[in-house]
Amino acid sequence: MNQLLRCVLPFLLASLTVPVVHAYPIDGYADTGIRRVEGARLANEGQARGAKQPPGGLLTSPQVDLRLLDQKELNLPPKDPEFTAGLMNLLGKNASNYGVAVLDLSDPDKPRYAEHRGNYRQNVGSVGKIVVALGLFQALADAWPDDIEQRTQILRNTSVTADAFSQRDHHKIRIFDVEKRKLTRRTMRIGDQGSLWEYLDWMLSVSSNSAASMTMREAMLLRQYGKDYPPSENEIKRFFKETPRKELTALFQLTFFEPITRNGLSLQKLRQGSFFTRKGKHLVNGGGNSYGTARELMLFALRMEQGRLVDEFSSRQIKRLLYMTERRIRYASSPALKNAAVYFKSGSLYSCVEEEGFTCKPYAGNKRNYMNSMTIVESPAENRHLHYISTLVSNVLRRNAAVEQQSMATWIHRLIERAHKQ
To answer: CB-based contacts of 251: which residues, under 8 Å, 6+ apart?
Structure first.
């Protein structure tokens, strides 16, 4: 495909296998060209097949905004003893298997913070895709620091064609035919096309590893070519074939490691060290492990709300890409959050060894059973009586971690509700 067509075409790590999540406000198609978003809007209006949105998933794009722009100097306050004690009570006997942080912003003049094992570090699975988004938006801003319109056009009009980097993944992407009003759910294939914005959406909404690896490829290309992005398909092939592996590793780290420290975060506590697909890892060695902590994920979310991840435009777009507008999973599936706007990313990694009387099941490993989440809650969605950030990393063996985190979400929500009774 030639460069002109790329520029103008409009448009391990697992999630639960049946429920799916969708991100970005459902009115966003006109601005972004994300076709799946239009499918979600039409389904909600009964004009196409698909699930309707919960009450908390109906905010429009202008309503999905950054909430702490006037508090850019806010840092995590000291741990509130009473709040932390309440959180510890929720964790109970499994406290040693959790790292958790909760920042209650419901009274913005009196934020409260609770934390337990905030610096406990483990592989956070697909939560690491927020680092990919940060890397891409940083590269975009570095290329066009004073031109938001050009950045928007790049996101909307750059056509990305899936190649070997996308292979392979069991997560199904959503391809919506706007004219025929037909939604197709399937795994990504080589040759699939979508805009850069659509690949970001596929990466964060249905946690597609294929889309994540393609987005990582594009972020590296943005970093390499700057204002000359996007290169032609032939140039992309030449670049990854002819560039020495050590140089590709250096470019990977420049693209995904350096933005962490530039944005006031710790590379020792949050890092995505590899591609999300086997083929991507074969083509480019990231040169590092992947991990996160509850505290660093909290700082990521806080800086996003403050407009401090790259800049306000980038922070706002990342938050909108994390806005859940369909079926919710894991922590976000708590019935207590039905009326809440939820901004969410989760990731898991489980494995099993032979054990008498034990049957290995998804998300209930006996060797490791990592479940991780970063969640912003605004409840109810329209007036935000409650506003808080919750981050968890857990490793509770032999128990369904998705159910465990759903329960934790309910308990945390009730804890915060009791503190703000009207």
So the answer is: 220, 223, 224, 243
